[in-house]
Specification:
This protein has 206 residues and is an all-alpha fold. The chain is built from 11 helices and no strands. Helix content is 73%, strand content 0%.
């Protein structure tokens, strides 16, 4: 997480630094990224950088955390529109992610992230909602889900559904970049998998 001195900066200065970092992480993966390039483009001294962040990894995971928060906010909004229909919400949210992740402004950043994945990266992107600062968003989601048609016993089962569906979502995003699939192929594969999950978890009609 950023140090408090970062949050004391004006919004304009914060955005300049974040924009410079995103450009560098779009150019190359995290392990090849250069703090020298980030501070040069942001127009700040190296010493100032370390007053704001511990290192480039700290800045990188702050970027991913911010993106994860926005994804969760969007997910909650869609879930409300869908009256708690969890699988339909995952599908619509995934369609939006395809558009965002393949937008030329963001594509290189996400491609570098997904194709140079490790446990910490995956945990940030998939399970970030379980972090302490994100728990409210996660429980907002859980309490909005319509469980009437779900074949589950308790809230623990609901947590497992979220983890499984989130893992399926992440897996398909990795494949989209790794195999350079079209939007149509990516969405079809995802819908097939989510529908299979849905059939396995929906109650049989009486």
């Amino acid at each position: 997480m950023p140090k408090q001195t970062f949050f004391h900066l004006s919004k304009d200065k914060q955005e300049i630094l974040i924009k410079s970092a995103k450009e560098e992480f779009s150019r190359v993966p995290l392990h090849d990224a250069s703090i020298a390039n980030i501070i040069k483009n942001a127009g700040i001294p190296r010493g100032s950088f370390y007053q704001y962040f511990e290192d480039k990894e700290d800045l990188y995971f702050y970027l991913l955390n911010q993106l994860s928060k926005k994804n969760a906010e969007r997910f909650i909004s869609i879930l409300k529109e869908k009256d708690g229909a969890i699988f339909e919400t995952f599908i619509e949210s995934f369609q939006f992610m395809i558009r965002i992740h393949k937008n030329p402004e963001h594509k290189s950043f996400f491609k570098n992230a997904f194709l140079n994945m490790n446990y910490k990266l995956e945990n940030t992107l998939v399970n970030n909602l379980y972090e302490e600062s994100q728990k409210k968003q996660y429980f907002d989601i859980i309490h909005l889900i319509n469980t009437k048609n779900l074949n589950i016993k308790d809230e623990k089962d609901l947590h497992q559904i979220m983890k499984i569906a989130s893992a399926v979502t992440f897996h398909n995003l990795v494949h989209m970049f790794g195999k350079e699939l079209s939007d149509e192929e990516t969405l079809k594969n995802y819908i097939d998998q989510i529908e299979l999950l849905k059939r396995g978890l929906y109650k049989e009609e009486d």
